[in-house]
Amino acid sequence: MFEHKDVHKCTWYQSTLGRRAMIDFVIVSSDLRPYVLDTRVKRGAELSTDHHLVVSWVEWRGKPLDRPGKPKRVVRVNWERLEEAQVHEAFNSHLRRSFSGIPVEVGDIEPEWLVFKASIAEAAAGSCGLKVLGALRGGNPRTSWWTPLVREAVRLKKEAFRDLLSRGTPEADERYRQARRAAASSVAEAKQRVWEKFGEDMEKDFRAAPKLFWKTVRHLRRGKQGTIQAVYSKDGTLLTSTDGVLGRWKNTLRNS
Fold first, then answer.
1. Rama region for 196: left / alpha / beta (φ>0; ψ in -120 to 50; rest)
2. d(CA 233, CA 121)
3. In sequence order, what are the beta bridge partners of 13?
4. DSSP 8-state class, residue 141
5. pLDDT in tens, 62-88
């Protein structure tokens, strides 16, 4: 506990009854505890709530900690795009330009290999682009339906919810209900578009279709994707269950 005045310790207040309490805290792991310099209440921050802002100062000058369980973020070359004729031609052109600038005699084999490796990596990144793998900030898994439109709708819903908590009026409740319905509709439409694109990709490339299909199945079994959308069976019956949709895809792949 840091020594401060009571006014800088109480994080909650009720002005009508004159009540104050310290009910908000900053939690850090045991390995960071020695580096916490100070924690106190910052009065005057407009938070639209009856809680004060709590600020903590942490000083760390050593090597960054290897925190177990921290989400990893890996960036690699999007080499899958080499199947596109235009990208493949751009890669070859970039590679020829890079190799033309390499000296004929570099010297030792190791420096020569490093020069060739850097040229290939530069050509691949310039023509194919980069692809981000792993989790995003906050640990949320990367999903293709998380578009800027969906993100904005969710942000508006959160703002409406905070406004409802602070005001509690019928108008605020109605605004929150509308924002919640709009966010749910945006998420559903985005997921629908993702599944439509998935079906189109399956139809375009029959060689890569089985790999894409079973990759999606594994994600579904681990609970990393939403529910499967409905598809039509061979006789025109609408299938809505997960087993029915997966069975339909299995039959399609076996017959292709």
1. alpha
2. 46
3. 20
4. B
5. 666 655 555 566 788 888 788 888 888
**Residue showing tokens 């989400």:** 71
Q: Are 61 and 48 within 8 A, CB to CB? A: no
Question: When comparing pLDDT for 253 and 190, which is higher?
Answer: 190
Q: How far, in Å, are 35, 36, 63, 88, 136 from residue 68 at the CA level? A: 19, 20, 15, 40, 16
- CA geometry: angle 178, 181, 187, nearest 5 deg: 140
- Token readout for 161 is 């919810």
Q: What are phi and psi of 208, to 5 degrees?
A: -90, -5
Q: Could you report the per-residue pLDDT of 107-152, keeping only the tens digit for each? A: 677 777 787 788 888 888 888 888 777 655 544 455 678 888 888 9
In degrees, rounded to 5, the angle at the alpha carbon of residue 206 between the alpha carbons of residues 230 and 249 is: 25
Q: State the chain's maximal CA–CA distance in angstroms.
A: 84
Average pLDDT score, the chain: 76
Tokens of 203: 């139809």
**Helix, strand, or coil here: 102?**
coil
Angle separating helix axes 209-221 and 170-204, nearest 10 degrees: 150
Q: Do the Cβ atoms of 82 and 91 come closer than 8 Å?
A: yes
